Amino acid sequence: MNKKLTLLAALALGGCAMATGSSMAQLQASSWQLQGATGDTFTLQVVDGKVAGKGGCNRYFGGITKQGDGVLTLGAMGSTRMMCIGDAMNKETEFLQKLEKVATYSINGNQLTLSDANKAALLTFNAVPAAK
């Protein structure tokens, strides 16, 4: 009885360990909202080798130069050129500069963390629930 319980526990824990990786499918399955941002001002979406979203007051877009499970390198970002009010332009510029430094990502539940080549976190997002 004790051996069966141990085997069952080992299988259950092993299954959980295999399911914790960050895959491109997970990344592409959601839209992402920057933690701490209000409304839909800073968003991210990855689709078909491209990244796009809102960067504060403008929409941005760019290509993915390297991708894989846990690996994500973005090219230069382009954006629309609407006038931003107050400090919004500085925040947007900082956000886009951080996106260009991304080298890796990890997804833990509904949270996406984009990190640089040294694994230092740059931006953290929450998954946006699908519209009904």
UniProtKB/TrEMBL annotation:
InterPro entries named in the record: DUF306_Meta_HslJ, HslJ-like_sf, Hsp_HslJ-like
On the tree of life, the source organism's domain of life is Bacteria
Give the UniProt keywords, A-Z. Signal
Q: Where is the DUF306 domain?
A: 26-125
The leader peptide range reads 1-25
UniProt name for this protein: META domain-containing protein
